[in-house]
Design goal:
By secondary structure, the chain is of the alpha+beta class. Helix content is 54%, strand content 7%.
């Protein structure tokens, strides 16, 4: 059996009744986080760009799916594209390793459910199917693909989207395998936009959703797809990761090592790799009691410091640059406290720029991923230090914590708490829930002049 066939059979067999309770609970938490963060992204510029592009390409469609926080209906692929850009607007979506799968899967499944009125009993199994497919491959191969400049979200997310769409559409195992094989041929995405501080990465999640949907539709229509698309000598793994694929070992992990449990959440609107440095800088700030360091040294794992844009000291002109930059995020936190979207988009703060220039980023193999050491030299000769040892467990929040977090962010963005009430009810009541309640929740977002 090939890997796409093994994944196809696994995905097609997922049902609410055979999913472990803790997997279902994590899926509900992912939904709450995805919709909750999305509500507070209504005024981010990327969604306006995506809407204009989709409306120009596809136009409105009365039987289509809703553009959240806007109201127009467009074809499913367009809604998935626009709403993914919306969910990605704060850079605060969920993270499965280095991939942001929730921002791909939730908009896609929402659009499918609304436009086609598909059975809601499939919604959570389809979501789990996406996390398991994308997460399995990301965990195994991201350490090889990321240093090459390949971005995990669109690469692994395309296959995740194909699996999720296939399950939502009720496709058989064989057809799902063909969809995943198609997606393996369509996947791709590079990291250069992070280094340049530009916006392509905002749209990569939507492109991945569209690729996954197209992969599933082609398979449903009868496409003949390479059975060895993942592990073949010219297949996905060899092309992207440059190594052989152990099919039996990966297939054995399906349904045993649930990737959805690796999904973490972001308390701050910065890159996932910057969550720990910001947490450490907040603790250091309390120790400094208003003193500004003369010099700051930051030690982190080379996998993180080598990620595109992480070592940038500016000049900055977009939040795409600031949220990636370790020096910016640490300097901002030391001087201004907890990062906000307003602070992350202030590019002409001279005091901030001065401190950024005094921050040295040091790759250190002895520092584990998601950890950091910050040493701050002060004018009187003292050095204050913080060692922050964190793991994914520290960001693997339960549903109550996510609820409090998204509501806190919503207050910052003036979003009605009634909107959060609605998405909480939806996530809790599935499969006995109506996607229309989610559409209505987004209609409660404040109106924006660009809407």
């Amino acid at each position: 059996m090939t890997l796409s066939e093994a994944i196809g059979d696994f995905v097609a067999g997922l049902e609410m009744r055979n999913l472990p309770e803790d997997v279902v609970e994590k899926a509900r938490t992912c939904l709450l986080n995805g919709y909750g963060i999305g509500l507070s992204c209504y005024d981010t510029p990327y969604v306006f760009v995506a809407r204009r592009a989709v409306l120009a390409l596809e136009g409105e469609q009365s039987s289509g799916a809703s553009l959240f926080a806007h109201g127009a209906k467009v074809p499913i692929s367009g809604a998935a594209m626009c709403n993914a850009a919306l969910f990605h607007g704060r850079g605060q979506e969920d993270t499965c390793g280095a991939a942001h799968l929730g921002a791909i899967l939730i908009p896609l499944l929402s659009a499918l459910a609304e436009s086609r009125r598909l059975p809601m009993e499939r919604f959570i199994p389809a979501l789990v199917a996406g996390y398991e497919t994308g997460g399995l491959l990301e965990q195994e191969y991201a350490p090889q693909t990321t240093p090459k400049g390949l971005r995990s979200s669109p690469i692994y997310g395309a296959l995740a989207a194909a699996a999720a769409a296939s399950r939502m559409m009720g496709l058989s195992g064989a057809v799902t395998a063909a969809a995943i094989a198609n997606a393996a041929s369509f996947a791709g995405g590079v990291l250069q936009s992070f280094a340049d501080g530009t916006d392509e990465w905002r749209y990569q999640v939507g492109v991945a959703a569209r690729h996954g949907l197209l992969a599933a539709e082609l398979a449903a229509a009868g496409s003949v797809s390479a059975p060895h698309a993942i592990e073949g000598p010219s297949g996905f793994v060899k092309a992207f990761a440059g190594q052989d694929c152990d099919v039996a070992r990966l297939a054995a992990r399906l349904g045993r090592e649930w990737s959805i449990h690796r999904v973490t959440f972001k308390p701050y609107p910065v890159c996932a790799f910057n969550q720990t440095p910001v947490t450490a800088a907040l603790e250091l700030r309390s120790k400094l009691r208003g003193e500004t360091p003369r010099r700051v040294r930051v030690r982190m794992n080379p996998y993180e410091t080598g990620y595109a844009g992480m070592d940038s000291k500016g000049p900055f002109h977009t939040i795409s640059g600031t949220l990636m930059s370790i020096p910016f995020c640490i300097a901002l936190t030391l001087l201004r406290g907890e990062p906000t979207m307003a602070a992350m988009t202030t590019y002409d703060d001279c005091e901030l720029g001065g401190l950024i220039d005094c921050i040295d980023l040091i790759p250190d193999e002895s520092v584990a991923r998601l950890c950091c050491i910050i040493d701050a030299d002060l004018d009187d000769g003292r050095t204050e230090s913080i060692t922050m040892n964190m793991t994914t467990k520290d960001f693997n929040f339960d549903r109550r914590t996510v609820s409090n977090m998204v509501r806190r962010i919503g207050q910052e963005q003036n979003v009605s708490m009634a909107a959060f009430d609605a998405i909480e009810i939806f996530a809790n009541d599935l499969p006995n829930a109506d996607i229309k309640s989610v559409v209505k929740a987004f209609s409660l977002c404040p109106k924006h002049e660009n809407s």
